[in-house]
């Protein structure tokens, strides 16, 4: 199982909206994430807008590709994009994966 951690930046003035949107993620979005291989997926948000995402998957590239092909993801990304800063495209295309340097099992 591949562990993936990534960073994004939420606009500080949109933090409340970002949190609210994630209190009730669409059921079809949750189902699509699970179906396309996103497991144990968590998002952590710092008060300055730093967003840290973590997930486990068999193949991150394949999971991203499969998710990108879903209609629900296209709708979600379009609605979420204005909440982020420093992106040239969709939030799911702007993830910056970190290199794992230590893991304690």
From TrEMBL:
Source organism, top-level taxon: Bacteria
SUPFAM superfamilies membership: Dimeric alpha+beta barrel
Name of this chain's protein: L-rhamnose mutarotase
Gene3D superfamilies xref list: 3.30.70.100
InterPro entries from the UniProt entry: Dimeric_a/b-barrel (IPR011008), Rham/fucose_mutarotase (IPR008000)
Signal peptide per UniProt: none
């Amino acid at each position: 199982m591949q562990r993936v951690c990534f960073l994004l930046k939420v606009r500080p003035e949109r933090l409340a909206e970002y949190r609210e949107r994630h209190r009730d993620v669409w059921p079809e979005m949750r189902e699509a994430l699970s179906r396309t291989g996103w497991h144990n997926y968590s998002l952590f948000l710092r008060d300055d807008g730093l967003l840290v995402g973590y997930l486990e998957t068999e193949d991150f590239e394949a999971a991203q590709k499969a998710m990108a092909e879903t209609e629900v993801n296209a709708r979600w990304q379009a609605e979420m994009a204005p909440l982020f800063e420093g992106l040239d495209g969709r939030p799911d295309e702007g993830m910056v994966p970190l290199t794992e340097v230590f893991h304690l099992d």
